[in-house]
Amino acid sequence: MDKREKIIQVIYSVMDEEINSLPSRKEPLKKSEDTVLFGGSDGLDSLELVNLIIGVEEEIGDVFETEIALADESAMSEENSPYRTVQTLTDYIITLLEADSGD
Question: pTM of this prediction?
Answer without folding.
Answer: 0.90
